[in-house]
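Exercise 7. Given the components listed, write out the predicted structure of the assembled complex. Treat all entries as one system.
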Amino acid sequence: MAELLRTSGLTKRFRGLVANEDIDFSLDAGAVHCVIGPNGAGKTTFLSMISGHLPPSAGTISYKEKDITALSVAERARIGIGRKFQTPTVFENLTVWQNIELAVLRPGGSAGTPAAKIADVLEAIRLTDEVDTLVRHLSHGQRQWLEIGLLLGNESELLLLDEPTAGMTAEETAATGELVSRLARERSLSVIIIEHDINFIRDLRAPVTVLHLGRILKQGPFDVIAADEQVREVYLGS
Amino acid sequence: MQTVVSVLFDVTLITMVLALAAFGLAIIYGLVGVINLGHGAMLTLGAYFTWAGIDAGLPFFIAVGVAGVGVGIVGIAFEHLVIRHFYDRPFDTLLLTWGFFLVSTEVVKIVFGTSFRNVTGPFPGAIDIGIYSLPAYRTFVAALSAAIIIATALVFFKTSLGIRIRALIQNREMASLLGLNIAATYKLVFAFGAFMAGLAGGLIAPMLSIDPYIGNVYLVRSFFVVIVGGVGQLLAGTLLGSFFIGGAETIIALFSSQVVAQAAVFFIAIVILRFRPLGLVGGR
Amino acid sequence: MSDAAVKQNTVFVRPASSFWGGETPVAVVVFLGLALLPLFAGGYPVYILPQYLLFGLLALSLGLLWGFAGIVSFGQAAFFAFGGYAMGLVLQAGLGPEGTWLAIAVATLVGGLLAGISGYFLFSAGVRATYFVLITLALSIIAEQVAVSQSQITGGWNGMFVDRLSLGFGPLGEVALYQDVAAYYFVLPVVAAVYFAARALTVARFGKILVGIRENEDRMEALGYQPWVYKTVAFSLSGAIAGLAGGLYASHSNFVSPSLAGVLFSTEVVVWVALGGRLSLFGALAGGVLVSALSNYLSSIAPQYWQLIVGLVFICVIVFFKQGLAGLFADLAAHMLPRRPGGQRHG
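Answer.
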């Protein structure tokens, strides 16, 4: 599989605080990867640098073998990098249909009628019945799915999901895990997920990167990580 | 050299008067985030209340004080009836305060009529400093303005009341957990800003002919003073902003007309805003 | 005013219906009615209505900007007035009846360019909405000052005389609009055409994107859109419409003066749109026509009290009726008409 994303020496310093230090990370197309770590480890900062919301202090990011470090948020979205934010960032006062429509109407989208694309997305995120519902009336979990749906409609190839299961019930969490696996499998999407829910991560059966104090502590399959001494210390100690 | 010094005097006087006029807005906009498009109307009300007070026989400074209090009361009433529901919606407060301007201006027209009024200042004539002659009243107002602004800044930064207000503005949730009465504090700040505007209107009244739109001359200027100086920077921002706006206008007016100068300064201020959205002093 | 009553009325966007749904039928009926008006009413209404219609167009320019892009401008009058001055100046160049079309184009272009340039300057830097309002306020002051100070061109406070238009159709001859009826039947179709064009725009992709930017600009950016581009285009369009309205107004009323550029008139436009309804283009148009007409009429009777009432109603509308009177009517209509099965959907 081709390498989709690579970061080299990615570093972010704020005044007096190093949020990310020297992160070398690589992700193949169609792969799912979890990023975990205690609070303040720099997970969201890492995602923000990939999506373009934060400029790095040092290091480069390449996507599909092109250096994208200088590209803006909108430019990165257009080449396929989609981000789901920690707090659901959707259009609260519009309907589900209108939300996905905006994602689908993106500049430079692929061929096909918007209606067909929207229907396809609705099907994938299982919100077909809520087509005309105002988003503000959706449950928190449904909003998270909708936001993922926006990324699908936007034809993102790299999904950056920041805590997609936060606030979800156990059922919803399981459904989300199943959704993510299915998307990666059926649509060859790559996904980086920041998560705290251990069960979710285990069921995903995806490789894990542990961040601690801005650096990569360990990388590997979930079982190996879960058994690792250092990782346990970092989690229990914090 | 003499011209330079007298220009400097001019600029200083104009700066301090502008600072006084803008201060009420700096308080309301800077502290509780309300884009008070009714600020000009508050200045106007201050001027008219002062005129009415003098007309009723009050001595000048008492009339000004009463005017300030009067506008403060109007401010509290408006805050209580309308504004307090909209603190989290800056656009709506903007429009609502504009509505305040519309209503207030019409009420002034109805009660006082539209013809010009005049207020005579308490210190006619000039003060002579060496070869320079300064208008006595303006100099007095400039000095008073400095005193008021510094005094307020001291209260704001050094007293427990000031600290509580600052805490509230920085973090509403935390402040309420600490037992601060948010609603009352906002009311207090809003009222104080209105009081300041009324006071300024009264003090400035002798320098101009009063008509129902007089305050609006200072409206946009005041906004630029606050924004260019830095929103929330009560002391440094207001003074710096006033110095910039007032100074630039005065200097440009030397080479062209007042009207052109005002337009030019607004233009410059817009350009500055575009490149430095946090103002000259602001930066958080 | 209780908290509950106030909080209940948060902004609600009605789904962008297809072009022929929603307000369009109402607009069609009204415009047809207006087309028949000169058959029943003569004299003064036929004379004055085009001017109110052009105010309506000015209000529409703000309605498009405010209701859809969520951008408030306190400076629409500047484009209106400068469109008027441009019209006057081009007509003075004596290009004959064919030159009239040029004059109209120039008036529109002047409005569009002024808005486009300032919009580009401000939006590309991400100047936020609240500052933008203040800046437009300052711009209208600047515009008024420019109109006053460049008196050798504009006539200063004396204003500028602008002739009625004489439309040249080449070999087909020319149509002079000196007669009020002729002028009426020129202005009405222009206003209607601009309205329907704007309406089409709002239900098309452009309109939906504007709404998206209004609702959540960050999300739009993260979906690959560049908000400043759309805002600048929207602002340019609104400037162009205002310029066109101003040019035609100046010609119809034979006069343009600096007060048409300034803050007071600019803010009147905001009041028109707020009262008429900013989430509805036709509401904005109607607001402009009705409030200005009512203003003028009641002004002669009891100016102070009328303005006072307008001010109070304005406050009430902002507090309670975000959607203005158009929203009220739409709500009433929704209650009275039977619901279509499946509701309004994708169109």
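Discussion: The two ends of chain B are 40 Å apart (CA to CA). The interface with chain C takes residues 35, 81-82, 85-86, 90-92, 94-96, 98-100, 102-103, 105-107, 109-110, 216, 220, 223-224, 227, 257, 259-260, 262-263, 266-267, 269-270, 273-275, 277 of chain B (CB under 8 Å).
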